[in-house]
Amino acid sequence: MAVRACGLIIYRRLQSAPSSKVTDSIEYLLLQTSYGTHHWTPPKGHVDPGEDDLQTAFRETQEEAGLQASQLTLIEGYKKELHYPVRGKPKTVIYWLAEMKDCNTEIKLSEEHQAFQWLKLEDACKFAEYEDMQATLKEAHQFLCSKE
């Protein structure tokens, strides 16, 4: 049976000059793990018994980044499922897209992570070294751009 995890790709919009494109003011939240290769990832984690996928995504975001569901706006119409092996076992990770209501809200990391960064798409893709995560970030960004 595949391991199942869920999380949120969280972004914020910075106040920018009226002349700049809205999409240039978007930054994505990535957390650096305090274990393994210290890779960078959006908040995510394993589904607990009796929990649905979206509940897991919000719980993990609260545990790992200190963000309550009430501080986020879930973006309708975006959901991405990734499939990849971890230690020889299949893993499924489902991401939703969520916007910070207040771009200045403090991030409070758990012991699972040692750092966080708000990054523009290009930098977020450099930090997220896995190709499928890079592709997911680009796809989410494209989705947001198409809504403008």
UniProtKB/TrEMBL annotation:
- Cofactors (names): a divalent metal cation
Q: Which CDD domains match?
A: NUDIX_Ap4A_Nudt2
Return the Gene3D superfamilies for the record: Nucleoside Triphosphate Pyrophosphohydrolase
The UniProt record lists the EC number as 3.6.1.17
From the UniProt record, which GO molecular function terms apply? bis(5'-nucleosyl)-tetraphosphatase (asymmetrical) activity; nucleotide binding
Taxonomic superkingdom: Eukaryota
Reaction(s) the record says it catalyses: a 5'-end FAD-phospho-ribonucleoside in mRNA + H2O = a 5'-end phospho-adenosine-phospho-ribonucleoside in mRNA + FMN + 2 H(+); P(1),P(4)-bis(5'-guanosyl) tetraphosphate + H2O = GMP + GTP + 2 H(+); a 5'-end CoA-ribonucleoside in mRNA + H2O = a 5'-end phospho-adenosine-phospho-ribonucleoside in mRNA + (R)-4'-phosphopantetheine + 2 H(+)
Q: Which residues form the Nudix hydrolase domain?
A: 1-141
GO biological processes: AMP biosynthetic process; ATP biosynthetic process
- According to its UniProt entry, what is the function of this protein? Catalyzes the asymmetric hydrolysis of diadenosine 5',5'''-P1,P4-tetraphosphate (Ap4A) to yield AMP and ATP. Exhibits decapping activity towards FAD-capped RNAs and dpCoA-capped RNAs in vitro.
**Name of the protein in question:** Bis(5'-nucleosyl)-tetraphosphatase [asymmetrical]
Q: Which gene encodes it?
A: Nudt2
